[in-house]
What does this fold into?
Amino acid sequence: MRTAVILMLTIFLPPALEAAPPPSNGIPLPATYKHWQVLGVSHRDDNRSLRAIVGNTTAMIAARKGDTDPWPDGTILGKLVWKDSRHPFWQPAIVPGALSHIEFMVKDRKRFKETGGWGFARWVGDKLEPLNNDGGKPCFECHKAAAKTDFVFTRPVRLP
Amino acid sequence: MRTAVILMLTIFLPPALEAAPPPSNGIPLPATYKHWQVLGVSHRDDNRSLRAIVGNTTAMIAARKGDTDPWPDGTILGKLVWKDSRHPFWQPAIVPGALSHIEFMVKDRKRFKETGGWGFARWVGDKLEPLNNDGGKPCFECHKAAAKTDFVFTRPVRLP
It folds into this structure.
């Protein structure tokens, strides 16, 4: 019971106390994103960045049921992106350096019907400067490469 | 309210329905680990593996307060480790392949006083075969490289 109370506090208290940055492409920063669960991890060796992929409750339920073709309306997927750094005590490990950006895909088939049913939002750097790029159309252009998987690159990890 | 109820269900229901694997070094698999929040990410280019680092509620509260020197008793840190794979639609991205293992560090200064106050546990592969290696002493030997940071390699990420 005590754990449940602490959990509710950690989930619901912080957003109310923090100032939100301006929206990106008309999408507000999801207030609870720091508390979402893990859907995946990736490392890009072209632009040398490490990523944690997280999801809101709708996303996690869909992913665990394998119900992601298409992802349901209400899904929000988040990508937390850091520049590569080397671990000071363990050189073969590449670990998060400076924050590059955080970005989100929001599923709403009606609202975002021109971009595959997804809204695209990004905030850059520690100051969370919002990106506004023609309603996310350039984002969607790249995501067309993942058209077979509802325009989502991330394949949710399965844990035993 | 509905979100809170769904959240409680996703946190508390699944463990009761799943069979637990045998303990590792006398430590049981943390029942709710799939639902923990993200503390970090890493990629090892020596053994080609990708990692998500997650923490229980005690760990997350300590990390967000910067209260990790030392980490408090009750902390559990989890590392979810996959073999490298290349994304089929986006070659520069290294993504999780087969599950390598999941491993945990459990802080209890009394119980684990011979290994820096930490218990070490690991379950290997999709079958979650438990590792039993002399109470985790070989794990501790390597973790001595991180003695300056309470034997923990992971530096929790800070999100704005």
Residues 20-149 of chain A form a domain with the Chalcone isomerase fold (CATH 3.50.70.20).
